[in-house]
Structures are given as C-alpha cells and as structure tokens.
Design a protein that fits this description.
Length: 220
C-alpha cells in the first residue's frame, strides 16, 4: 500500500509538471503565414504593413506574400523576404526573463534569380532591429525550382532578457529575388528539473503497473 501511495504521489507530480514540459507549444502567432489577406499568386507588401499578415509587421522596404507561386514548406503560403527590394518581417512575443527559447524556421531561396546564395539576417531584442545578428544562407542550385524549393530547417537558441522579445527576419539581398521563409516557431526549453520529474513520474507509473500485475490472482 505504501508503494502504491508513493507511486501515486509521484505520478501526480509528473502531471503537475506537464504544463512546463509542454512548453514546446509554438509561441509565434501564424508561424506559417496562413492567416492574412488573399495572397493570390503573390502579393507585394510595403514596409510598415502590420495588418496584411496576421501577427506580423513588414520591415522596410517590401516583401512578397507568396500564395500559389511556389511550393510552401508548411501549408500553402510563405514569404519572399525581398519584394521590390530587401525587406523582412517581425513579431514580438511574450517571454520570461532568463528563460531559454529555441527558434526554428524553414529557409529556401527565390529560384527566379538563377543559381545564387541567398542571405537572411535574424535579430532579436526588445524592439524592432534590436539584438545581435545571425546570418543564414541558402544556396539555390540546379535542383531548386518553384515546385521543388528545397526548404531547409534551421534552429538557434536565445535566453530572454525581458518580458517581451521581438524576432526579426530580414533579407540581405537588394533585389527582387530574396531568401524565402516559412514555418517559424519559438518554444521554451524545459528546465532540467522538469525533465527529471517527468522521468521519475513515468518510472513510478511503470512500477505501479508491474506491482498491480503481481497482485492479480491466478484463476485455476
């Protein structure tokens, strides 16, 4: 009986820790850009536009909101971060001071500009344009077409320095053929103590099952 009660307590602790362990929930709104105005084949959006793509603000100078023009990574819409010239998008999310987060996104390149390396710059901070810059590249090659964009997933981590963090994704291509962006997500990294509690809880659940099996009488 004591073992059963101890196991029950541990399992209860495991489920109490579940909200923290479920921190993999995407904190980004509309990370695949599916919600917004009708993109059609594609629609060019000017810098400062904060209504056309739900949750996102367009950075100078412009971007292309891509619908059916090429293959998206997730869903049916994506972005060319160079519209008529280099541009970008930003979104501010709520964060916890000192909490570590993981950012994930899919990157490709506009194949209409020929074989080339596309450069995308990401920054984060407490305001648009703040924080240290990270540069990511995508090489558009012979196998990359509108029907086969070659989307590649990149990730990086950061530790929040305030109650809100602004993520910026910007093109470094001063042309109409920029880096393509889709499937953006941000999730909190669970603390080690949370994982430890989950492991202990699952172990206790397994022990309870084994003990209950031993108590089942054998039918002659």
């Amino acid at each position: 009986m004591k073992k059963y009660l101890l196991g029950t307590a541990l399992v209860a602790a495991m489920f109490a820790a579940a909200p923290a362990a479920n921190a993999a929930t995407n904190l980004i709104q509309n990370g695949s850009f599916e919600d917004g105005v009708d993109a059609g084949v594609f629609t060019t959006l000017a810098g400062g536009d904060s209504t056309s793509i739900t949750g996102w603000t367009v950075l100078p100078y412009s971007i292309d909101y891509v619908g059916s023009y090429w293959q998206a990574s997730d869903g049916v819409r994506s972005l060319d971060l160079s519209g008529n010239a280099k541009g970008g998008v930003s979104q501010t999310i709520a964060t916890i001071l000192g909490q570590k987060y993981t950012v994930s996104f899919d990157l490709a390149g506009n194949p209409d500009g020929g074989y080339d390396t596309k450069f995308m710059v990401t920054t984060l901070g407490n305001g648009v344009g703040g924080g240290a810059a990270e540069i990511y590249t995508f090489d558009v090659g012979p196998g990359n077409t509108r029907d086969n964009m070659g989307w590649t997933t990149f990730t990086y981590s950061f530790t929040a320095t305030s109650a809100s963090t602004t993520l910026n994704f910007a093109s470094a291509e001063n042309s109409a053929y920029g880096p393509a962006l889709d499937n953006v997500s941000v999730s909190a990294v669970p603390e080690p103590a949370t994982w430890a509690m989950m492991i202990v809880g699952f172990g206790a659940a397994g022990a309870m099952v084994r003990n209950r099996r031993k108590l089942v009488p054998t039918v002659a």
